[in-house]
Amino acid sequence: MLTWLRRKYRIVLLVVGALALLPSYLWAYLLTAPSETPTLNIGDRILVNKASYTLRFPYSSVTLYRVRSPERGDMILLRLPDRRSVAPKRVIGLPGETIELRENRVLVNGQALPLQPLKRADFRWVDPINHIGSVVADEDGHWISFTPGVGRYRTCPPVSLNPGQYYVIGDNRDVSADSRIWGPVSEANILGKVVTALHKR
């Protein structure tokens, strides 16, 4: 009987401990801007894993273990340059690469990422408040949208990334504020990886 009670006590302690630690590694956010349309839309909720890249001591900035580095195509949660806001963005450029945009085509070291046009009619579920572009496409495995000839930052000169720097862009090229405006971002400002989304439809 005593052994059974000890086992139950340990299980309860493990569950309580896990519930106490969970908020330090998993965050939920509500999207309030259309910069990731059509992948994510205003009103969608995202879950961010803060331990995807770096495992930190709970509720602190002390690094315990580096899990891995962000990869091209990852949707990340980023601390913005104003230091007061956060937003999801897509990792496009990795340390050591040179990134350029020509009419919304991303070039990595001079080579354009694969781009496959999709039928915009298949995205009728996207609410008009998200300002989806006239073109929807699959870019190297993720959706993007843009309007030819419209976006102010549809063409950007080459930028070479230093160690620990990443180039991030919103999937909605017409309206996103990202590395095209404020340049490469430091890995220290990457808060975690978006692992799932609950879509408002």
Characterization of this structure:
The chain has 201 residues and is mainly β. It has one domain: Umud Fragment, subunit A, CATH 2.10.109. Helix content is 14%, strand content 38%. It contains two helices and 16 strands. It has helices spanning 2-25, 179-182; strands spanning 26-30, 45-49, 54-56, 63-66, 75-79, 86-93, 98-102, 105-108, 111-112, 115-118, 135-139, 142-146, 156-160, 165-169, 185-186, 190-198. The strands form four sheets. Strands 1-2-16-5-6-14-15 form a seven-stranded antiparallel beta sheet. Strand 7 and strand 8 (105-108) form a beta hairpin. The longest helix has 24 residues, at 2-25. It is globular, with a radius of gyration of 20 Å. Mean pLDDT is 86; it is low at 12-22.
Short description:
The protein is mainly beta.
Summarize the topology.
Layout: H1 2-25, E1 26-30, E2 45-49, E3 54-56, E4 63-66, E5 75-79, E6 86-93, E7 98-102, E8 105-108, E9 111-112, E10 115-118, E11 135-139, E12 142-146, E13 156-160, E14 165-169, H2 179-182, E15 185-186, E16 190-198
Antiparallel strand pairs: 1-2, 2-16, 3-4, 5-6, 5-16, 6-14, 7-8, 7-13, 8-9, 10-11, 11-12, 14-15
Supply database-style keywords.
2 helices; single chain; mainly beta; 201 residues; four-stranded antiparallel beta sheet; 16 strands; Umud Fragment, subunit A; seven-stranded antiparallel beta sheet
Provide the CATH superfamily.
Umud Fragment, subunit A
Element order: H for helix, E for strand: HEEEEEEEEEEEEEEHEE
CATH fold topology? Umud Fragment, subunit A
Helix content: 10-25%
β-strand number: 16
Uncertain stretches: 12-22
Describe the largest sheet. Answer: 7 strands, antiparallel
